[in-house]
Amino acid sequence: MTEPDQADAEVLSRGDAPDDGPRRSRVRSRVRPGVRGGVPLPLLLPALVGLAFLLLPLLALLVWAPWRGLPDLLTSTEVWQALQLSLVCATAATGVSLVLGVPLAWLLARTDFPGRGFVRALVTLPLVLPPVVGGVALLLALGRNGVVGQLLDAWFGITLPFTTAGVVVAETFVAMPFLVVSVEGTLRAADPRYEEAAATLGASRFTAFRRVTLPLIAPGIAAGAVLAWARALGEFGATITFAGNFPGRTQTMPLAVYLALQSDPDAAIALSLVLLVVSIAVLAGLRDRWMTGVS
Length: 295
Description:
mainly alpha
């Protein structure tokens, strides 16, 4: 072993060596390629199989797509109604999620109250709850004979199940947790001292939130809104359980795909392609937040 290599080995053996910037950098440059360069075969093969497993269905969708008849399929009345209804309901659900979810995220991130952990668990429960179960729960709560639904029907004549408004409610139920989780994480990362400084200058807590906190967390709100919109656009279980599957009124694109598979597979593939394009667009829009690594 040469003298420089022996010295490098000594540097590696003791973590608290005195400052020796060039030598330490040389040691790191020699060690890191050895750690990252080789991929063990027992890890490489399952990784490639997993990648193929995820990509193969998407490639099959592209292979079987009726490209020649795609314009006619996407402009048909049934498909257009489902697409238009999906876009409108997903956007409305995202708006409701913003109005309700941002204050909820602030409450969870900036205040301390008894049972906060339990409340956070309840907020994130729709993320893991089967959507069909969520639809049943919505029926029991907001149905015509539900806990709250019967009061809405008796007092205001409002009936939510099996209506377009019911689609928005179902999509909001499953999509809002994505927004809350994203915004809460952004709030926890934001420095609260800016809000404290605004309070010392005479601003009320709401003014500090509106003028200081919101601009700071705007990227997190935007990311959460995009995720919520994409989740609402692809919602199926809660929607069909709570709102039904009525063309032109409650039939969104996922429901139209399910129905078309039984009678018109080409239309089902065309709608699936639309949803695939939307999903790719969402990932592309969030690439700076989710798809880039930290060096």
